[in-house]
Design goal:
The complex is a heterodimer of chains A (124) and B (220). Chain A is mainly α and 124 residues long. Chain A has four helices and no strands. Chain A has helices at 8-16, 19-49, 57-75, 83-120. The longest helix of chain B is centred in the middle third of the chain and has 41 residues, at 91-131. Classes of the chains: A mainly alpha (124), B mainly alpha (220).
Chain lengths: 124, 220
């Protein structure tokens, strides 16, 4: 790639960030990002389950299995051939995980807050 | 530009269509921004409820909600105007304004997520405080320092976005960059943003695991 005489950073990007290098970096990022994203939602669900006798069938199907499905779809990003395909495979799970996270905060938040209030209330 | 819905389901990299589509692009951006904002509002409300006993804060809700809505309407609606003002045509008019808007919202999501993680840290500290009852673990100076660090970090993120894209546009106008060169610069910014997301998300995971353990033990 012939680079115009420009900024050193931009020059460095044009000479270093070849298509292969970019794909490799992107896949490394997915390997680091996907477990963290799934971990956040999973731990939020676990926190919302504290003190509950049973998680409930609907809850397990829609949230835990939904999350597992998202994780699996994210992982298919590794076999993608182009950056656009990687993002395609990551964007949907990301959107669904974010929805599960927000939904859990809105629906289970008040109950978890009550539990925490019992524990933390004294420190106010 | 409008593409039948079946195309999205059959083409492996339909993100390109989402990116180029007139309606799907703003819809996806608005959806992700709204979810981040809702999460932040609920985390903040929960934290304030625990800390002060008062959860509702209409001023924050209205100010942040108006800001988010204005950014969405202004930037997504102003893309065409931006392309005209920059004197862009052809692929440039399609790609450049959308890349700038997408990156701006990526930066906003990073900021919103960092703020969410900030409240997760506050929850964690409150739990730790109750965990070590009687032991002085509250540190106002440390909290203030953390607050300043967060404000500085988030401001630096916005400055980085502004400088990087301003420089890109400057270079583009002066040197008539090819699409390949422009794409490389845009991809580099996405890698940078991705690294930021990875760091704060792992911090959040560690805090949530620790918080869960404390909560589980205390709740029995």
């Amino acid at each position: 790639m012939s680079a115009p005489p420009l900024d050193p950073l931009f020059q460095w990007i044009w000479t270093t960030l070849s298509a292969d290098a970019f794909m490799a970096a992107l896949k490394c990022q997915i390997a680091l990002w996907a477990p963290a994203d799934v971990g956040i939602v999973f731990m939020t669900l676990r926190i919302a389950d504290v003190g509950r006798a049973q998680a409930g069938t609907r809850r397990i199907i829609f949230r835990y299995l939904g999350l597992l499905l998202c994780a699996l779809v994210s992982l298919t990003g590794f076999v993608a051939d182009s950056p656009e395909e990687v993002w395609t495979r990551v964007l949907i799970p990301w959107g669904i995980e974010l929805a599960i996270f927000s939904y859990t905060l809105v629906v289970d938040g008040p109950r978890t807050l009550k539990l925490m209030e019992r524990l933390v209330g004294k420190t106010r | 530009m409008s593409i039948p819905i079946a195309t999205y389901l059959t083409v492996p990299n339909w993100i390109v269509f989402v990116f180029l589509d007139r309606w799907l692009f703003p819809l996806v951006v608005a959806y992700l921004t709204a979810l981040y904002w809702i999460s932040l509002v609920y985390l903040r409300r929960g934290f304030l409820h625990l800390k002060t006993g008062r959860g509702s804060e209409p001023v924050f809700l209205w100010v942040s909600g108006t800001l988010v809505a204005s950014l969405l309407v202004g930037l997504l609606g102003g893309q065409t105007l931006g392309a005209q003002r920059l004197g862009l045509g052809g692929w440039e008019a399609q790609l450049i304004p959308k890349s700038l808007v997408w990156h701006f919202f990526m930066t906003c999501w990073f900021i919103l997520e960092a703020l969410c993680v900030w409240y997760v840290l506050q929850f964690h500290d409150l739990l730790q405080l109750s965990w070590r009852a009687g032991v002085q673990v509250a540190a106002p100076r440390r909290d203030r320092a953390r607050g300043w660090l967060l404000a500085l970090g988030l401001s630096a993120t916005l400055v980085l976005y502004g400088c990087y894209h301003y420089q890109t546009l400057l270079v583009f106008k002066q040197s008539h960059l090819s699409g390949v060169h422009f794409l490389a610069l845009m991809r580099f910014y996405r890698l940078l943003a991705g690294m930021g997301f990875i760091v704060i998300e792992w911090v959040a995971v560690v805090l949530l695991v620790r918080g869960y353990r404390m909560l589980k033990r205390r709740a029995g």
